[in-house]
Amino acid sequence: MYSTTHSHHLSLHEESILKNIKPEHKILLTFFIVISIAFSDVESLFQITSHILIVFSIVFISKIPLKTYLKRLTIDIPFILFALFLPFLSSENNDVIYTFAGIEIFRTGLMDMFAILFKATLGLTMGIVLTAVTTNIEIIYGLQKLKFPQIIIAIMSFTIRYIDVFIDEFKRVKISMRSRGYKEKGLKTLFPLAYASGAMLIRGYERGERVYLSMLSRGFNGSIELKERKYNNSIILIFLTLVSVIILILDKYL
Amino acid sequence: MSKYLKINNLSYTYPDGHKALNDINFSIDQGESICVLGPNGAGKTTLILHLNGILGNLTGEIEVDSLKYTPENIGEIRKTVGVVFQDPDDQLFMPTVLEDVMFGPKNFGYTNEESEKNAVQALKMVGMNDSQDRAPHHLSFGQKRKVAIATVLASKPKLLVLDEPASNLDPASRRDLIEILKNLDISIILVTHDLPMALEICKRSLILNEGTIKEDSLTKAILQNEKLMKENRLELPYGFAFHHLGEE
Which of A215, B148, B232, B233 is deepest in the core (most CB within 10 A)? Predict the structure, then answer.
């Protein structure tokens, strides 16, 4: 049997004050900040600058290395590409602000582009920070504390537990294919991989049944409870979240 | 004398029509350990699943610790009979080792504190107490096997059933496993192809082949009966000699 590869977690080793605080707080506060960003008005300079300041202060205290942050931010690229088309497409009452070589640039489109760039980038940044300072298990634990449905918790927990086993099995299948002369070359050679994936699906199903039997034999009655863990509170994260939400409310309603 | 585990006329046919067990009869005393030997596809794993009341729809009778296999008793039976499955990856599914070992006791009604105490004790018994907070998928195969045994021991079963516990283990891990099993003070049913291990742990063995019990006698007598061994597709490892155990 091949040894199991260790999973590549998103959480970082760097110690920070955000690391050992209650995961349920981290999830909830991230959610509030993201909601606050999503509802913020991009035409309000006050809101934009304060949210940028809040989000990047959190990035700073999370001690996430710049390189890692930028690498993970590549997930933002599809949003950026989409946003870049908007100035040429999105218009309201034909509000052209500039014409260059017959191509019109609309004001509404420009604002939409900016809104997407601002909200997607800051929102994703919060997600990157959350996953960098919280392990997979902690996120599950946090969701359990937030009273997420047991079934969702169980599915997430099984996914994290078995994804490595599944990847390892698929790697072994691929090694055995290669050892019999298989080479990935062109579309046609993808068929054996498709068959192998099908076989893996059946195996996954069978393993699921075996895991369930082993759970039954240990008295499984429908609930999976994780052990109590000890965490600190984070005044600074609660403070920044409150500021973020208050900024939104103040600017919107006063 | 009343027997601890009694199996009378047990038969089982899978939904696809495959008859896996046919008229199985045997019993064991409290504290007695037996081995179930037999070739692949003999029905050994099916027998194990029945001992834990998992498959249902059986014909015949099973009784353990004076508990009949009825739906009302199933919870108590699963607490009494602990099964260690063949692939530890099927058994270890919680995020950390300690949580996995606590899973059984919690389900069987122990409080959180008792469950943790039992779990730590079980992990100490298998020498894995230092790995409490590790993720099960980060352990080596031998370590996973030890933890899988601990997950069952933590519920304090009175009968421990192990399905091929020595498969895929390196010699040192196999030796660790044998020592762990020898030091347990409970009845054991050991299903294995590892005949020297069977000889070391169980005085008595059964041969199960094609769903029926072909032999029920002393392990040593079975291993010395070449004809019986061959008929049931069993073979001692090359170079194995009984004088290793003080025999001529």
Answer: B148
